[in-house]
Amino acid sequence: MRRAVMAILSLLAFPLFGQTADEIVSKYIKTIGGMDKISAVKSYRRSGKFTGGSGFEARVVEDKKRPNMIRQEFLLQGMIGVTAYDGRNGWKIDPFEGKKDAEPLGEAEMKKIVDDSDFEGPLVNYQAKGNKVEYVGMEPVEGTDAYKLKVTLKNGDIFYYYMDTDYFVPIKIDTKRFVRGEEREFETSLGDYKEVGGWYQPYSFETNAKGSANKQKITIEKIELNVPLEDALFVEPPLKGKAPAPTTAPDASNIQPKKPDEQKPLPTEPKKPPRTVTLSREDGEGALPEILRFAQDDASEEVR
């Protein structure tokens, strides 16, 4: 009889755990504003301050636009580093390494920016995104019990979300990312939730490689919703001095035929190269990278 009861309980346990995960996610979405408020946001810009492990500071900005476009900027000593993803291609400009032109992202950088491009995060509409969420029990975070959710992304990366038991918002996220078979782990603490346009978002992120005391912090100072962002902002720019490739075929009706007898004189002097066009960006509030890019990917390094 006892074995029969235990067997029945074991069968019931699995749907209970799955139901609990869905309940936690549902309460989380409700707490931060609900799907109507979240869905009404088509783009946003976050700007703030980055503080490195040794105390140096930089400005950070992040622009996001649905469905999955993102641009992150890191401003330090008059230079602007850019990492961006247009929904298909990822690229960066790294002036801190003496590079002024855009270049493709490496494998680790690409996986990170694709994760960051999720507009609402992996918990919202997780099933439609191909993610899997499991409730794995309670675990304390700095002495306070939290619900622990295991979030497995479609690409195999794993996040552990520690959800506050009163407000059902994440207060800590552990990340496991696999790059060329190597596992990389990071820890991020979240806090200072504030409401913007009916959507509550964290304004504080503190990140470190797991086991490292070197922490990097981003403090959000401003979030702007539904800012006008052109798609071109997220697209990799052409090399400086090189015109972008045409997006449409030329209209033959607008091309004037050459005169048959017309001949151009041979040049007597070599042509001068075209002047490089330098693009400048006005100083001011921009977007802030979830900074988790700079904080996680370079958690053990600082800008020298």
Q: What is the fold's blueprint, element by element?
A:
Elements: H1 2-31, H2 35-39, E1 43-51, E2 57-65, E3 69-76, E4 79-85, E5 90-93, E6 103-104, H3 107-116, E7 132-141, E8 144-152, E9 158-164, E10 170-179, E11 182-196, E12 199-209, E13 216-225, H4 292-297
Give a description of the structure:
The N terminus and C terminus are likely disordered. Helices cover 17% and strands 37% of the residues. It is globular. The chain has one domain: outer membrane lipoprotein receptor (LolB), chain A, CATH 2.50.20. It has four helices and 13 strands. A 13-stranded antiparallel beta sheet has the order 6-5-4-3-2-1-13-12-11-10-9-8-7. The termini are far apart. The protein has 304 residues and is α+β, with helices and mostly antiparallel strands.
